[in-house]
Amino acid sequence: MSQFFDLVSKPVRNMGGYSPGMPLQTVTPQVQQKLIKLDSNENPFGPSPRAVEAMGRALAFSSAYPDDDCAQLRHKLAEHHGLQPEQVMVTAGSTALLGLLCQTLLAPGLNAVTSQRSFIVYSLAVNATGASLIETPMANDGFDLNAILDAIDEKSRIVFLANPNNPTSTLVDVGMVDNFMARIPGHVILVLDEAYYEFAMHFSSLRGTTHSKSLDYVRQGASIVVLRTFSKAHGLAGLRIGYGLGPPELLAYCARMRNTFSVSSVAQAAAMAAVDDQGHIRRVVTNNADQALALTDALSKFACRVAQTSTNFLYCDLGEDASIVARRLQDEGVSVRPLRAWGAPNCIRVTIGTPEQNQCFLGAVRKIVGHNRAEKIALNSNRT
Ligand SMILES: Cc1ncc(COP(=O)(O)O)c(C=O)c1O
Hints:
Blueprint: H1 10-14, H2 29-34, E1 36-37, H3 49-59, H4 71-81, E2 88-91, H5 94-105, E3 111-115, H6 121-127, E4 132-136, H7 145-151, E5 156-162, H8 174-183, E6 189-193, H9 197-207, H10 214-219, E7 224-229, E8 242-245, H11 248-257, H12 265-276, H13 278-301, E9 305-306, E10 313-317, H14 322-331, E11 334-335, E12 337-339, E13 344-351, H15 355-383
Parallel strand pairs: 1-11, 3-4, 3-5, 5-6, 6-7
Antiparallel strand pairs: 2-8, 7-8, 9-10, 10-13, 12-13
The structure holds pyridoxal-5'-phosphate.
């Protein structure tokens, strides 16, 4: 009989947990050395050397508590983005701010709205408050903003829009977000999650499109919180640091809910240095875009459907049970994320790695799914 089931709160009883990709720390050093980890959208190049140096310096002062308000970093980010420091809130990863926003705005009887097949933490953060999450159907592997507007009711307080979306890698066009902003009711706050902003910006500049006007909305004082993170393009996922940009009053309410000293001084120092190393970001996003093209092309030759990515990963329909393929890929030393839990049993999400890592991944795909298919495709094209 369960000892604590009747004691824990109802939201906790009803919640599922988060299952992350394989943590490197849990495997033996031999496997660690060989494993190509393409399951968590981490940065294959790691952090900027300048951030690593800054961490080293900060370590010597580890006996002191960090600045709870992250004031230096807030000021730096405000200047970087052309905003006021009060419009910036730094948290232990952007997911921590997702949690704070939910605790601040939601309660049992209220709801938040997002799309199916989006970032898993939205449901965890909402369910922890006892509120409910409404998930609208997707359109073309992306958010259907009209469906979201239709789903909003008087009990709604938050809409989550991951742009680009995890795990489908797709982007909502800037005009559609503009239109959405004009139509979203006043009692609802848009949480625009731009965790992959730097990658999306680079893709947009290559494609000659505009990625996002998110900071204009913040400057206009709209009911929006834009989330950014140091976990992806900056390569600092292990340090847990991210931030939100939004209305000072709302961020101040969220700040009341946060744990004291939750962002370490090492993370703050690393982030300060990472903002200054834009050259590192450029190298990371350039490799990503080049490799996205190469991988998409190669996977298409095996009859895999790959969505056009605006992120550092690919959403790929293998046309067969992806959990089985993912297990076999892992036997070959490559870890990817199968997406059955997202309602896409034939799909995987694979992080775009270094050219060498991607070659290993493709070699394993060729061995597992590719051989027969490549032959079939060649045969068919010879016949036509
Ligand atoms: C859409 C989205 N938002 C936020 C995050 C997490 O960011 P952080 O590491 O800052 O908590 C991720 C990470 O995978 C993500 O995909």
